[in-house]
Amino acid sequence: MPGYALAIAYAFYGRLMEDRALLAYRTAPAPDLPALTTAAHWGTRPAPGGASREVLEIAWLQGGAPRTADTALLTMQQDGLLRVDGQGEVSLMAGSLPRTPAERAVTDEHAEAGRHASAVTLGDLRNRLIGNQKIAAIGESLIRRGLAYESRQCTRFRVGHVLLRLCAKLYPVLAVIVMGTAFVGFAQNGAADGVITAWYGLTLTVLMALAGVACQMVSHAVLPDPVPGTAPGQDVLRSARRDRSPYATGAVAAAGGGVALALALDGLDALGDQPGCEVMADCGVGTIAADSSAWWSDAFSGSGGDSSSGDFGSSDSWSSGDSGSSSDSSSAGA
Questions:
Q1: Of 3, 14, 80, which is closest to residue 221 (Cα–Cα)?
Q2: Given a cut of 50, is residue 247 above it in pLDDT?
Q3: What is the DSSP letter of 51?
C-alpha cells in the first residue's frame, strides 16, 4: 500500500538526516573566527557593537538568510547607521564604519545597488543581502557544525509533511468508504459470498486506517520540521530565549546582544509600534518568500512537530551563492 511505503521512506530519511546532523554536531571542531573589531582585520578600528556572530547565527536558526539579513539591517537602523525614509529608500550614515562582516556586506551591497539606480530601496538591499556570501557563510558554518539543515533537505521535509498529512487525512475516508461498500456487498450477496466480501472489506479497512495512523505519526514525531535548525540548533534557540533578560544576558549580551538578539528572535515584531515599522514591513522586512508548495502545505495545518521556528516558511530562500569568508567574535554552538 502506498501509504506504508511513504511512511517508511520518510521515517528513514528523517532519521538519517537527524543522525547526520548529530554526528556533525558532535565531531565538528569549534570555528576559528578572528575578533571582528581588530584593526588588523578591518584596516581601521570601527565602533563597537552591531549584531555579533552569535546573534546572526541565532537569526539564521530562527529564519534562515532572510531573518539574518533583517537582523543586520534593523540593528544598523536602530543604532542610527542606516536610515529608511517614508518611501522605503535607504541611506547610510556618512562616515560610519562597518562594525561586523554582516555590516560590511550591507555597505558593499548598498554601494553596488547605488551604481545601478539613483535610489536604493530597502527591499532591493534586503534581497541583495540575502544572497551575499558573508550571509550565506553563516548558514554554511551552522550546517557543517550540525546546527542547521541544508535548504534542499528542508524542501524535502516540507514536501514529506504535505504528502504524509494528505495520506493521514485521505486513508481514513477511504477506509470508511470501503467498509460501507463491504456491508452493502454482504447485504446483497447473501451469507456465503457476503461473508467473504465483508472479510476482505474489513481487512482492507483496517490496513487503510493503520496506514493513515502511520503517516500521521511519522509526520508528527519522526520527520523533522522544515525549519533551518536541527535538534541541537533548536536547543540553541530555546537557550537564547530562556536566558535573555529581557533580550540578552551572559555571553550573548557581551557579544552585542540587546536589541540585536531581540530582532534575531522576534524579527520586526521586536520593534513594536515604532515609527517606520509599517514602511519596513511594506518593503518585505520580516517576510519570507513562500516556495512552490506553500499554498497547499498551508492547507494541512503547518509543520509536523514542535519547533521554535517563528515565521519561517520557505527553505528555498535561505541562501544563495557559494561559501564566502565570514568572521566574527564567537559561535552559537561553541
A1: 14
A2: no
A3: -
